[in-house]
Amino acid sequence: MVRRGPGGLGLAGAPRVASSFPIFGHVNSCPAHTRGAQPVTQPTAESVIWLTQEAYERLAAELEHLRGPARAEISRRIADAREEGDLRENGGYHAAREEQSKSEARLLQLEDMLSRAQVGETPSNNGIVEAGMEVTVKFEGASDSETFLLGAREVLALDDSVDVSVYSPQSPLGSAIVGKQPGDTATFTAPNDRLVSVEIISAKPFAS
Questions:
Q1: How far apart are CA 18 and CA 148, in angstroms?
Q2: How far apart are the C-alpha atoms of 208 and 199, rounded to whole Å?
Q3: Same domain, yes or no, for 92 and 124?
């Protein structure tokens, strides 16, 4: 039985180590006590977001839409609402301002994501684990397997219907299984210094 879920590895009988990993491909997903005080000014291995060319182009197109037509349309709606007079009880004005806030937040998020993106080709379907693949593993002592995307959680934003855990290639688990294939085992050290063993069950290109 395969269990999927956005919360990480939740296997009955398996070590619950997922919440201790930096599971996403950026530094802010590290445990709070490990975060440094200095801002990240250049992409590092930990901050890079792996994207296929298709995913990059789709996010870039969304960014351009938010910068151009979407921003202009919201500004027009705000201006029209202002002309109606008293803004305190102007539902249209407040709705447009709220939408503007959400749109600008998404715009900044996309700018950050794309500035840290590493664009690669869709991985070949050769069963060898690499970034951009949907990987199924089984932890030592567990009765169930776990399926997850080896990549960046931002890829999932392209399709709201996708429900799968995400592990960064730079995470302890991710770095241990890259280059492995079905039947191989890998061992990695969790942040609590515990050795964790995992068997690769399958690896295939992730269909976003």
A1: 12
A2: 25
A3: no
124 and 181 inside one domain: yes
Among 160, 161, 155, 157, residue whose Cα is nearest residue 206: 155
Whether 39 is in a domain gets the answer: no
pLDDT digits (tens, 9 = 90+) for 15-68: 333 333 333 333 333 333 334 444 434 555 456 777 778 778 988 999 999 999
Global pTM value? 0.55
* Number of other residues whose CB lies within 10 A of the CB of residue 28: 11
Report the relative pairing of strands 185-189 and 117-120 from DSSP bridges. Answer: unpaired
CA distances (Å), 148 to each of 17, 90, 145, in order? 14, 46, 10
End-to-end CA distance of the chain: 22
φ, ψ for residue 38, nearest 5 deg: -85, 135
Element (H, E) at 41: none
The amino acid sitting at 120 is G
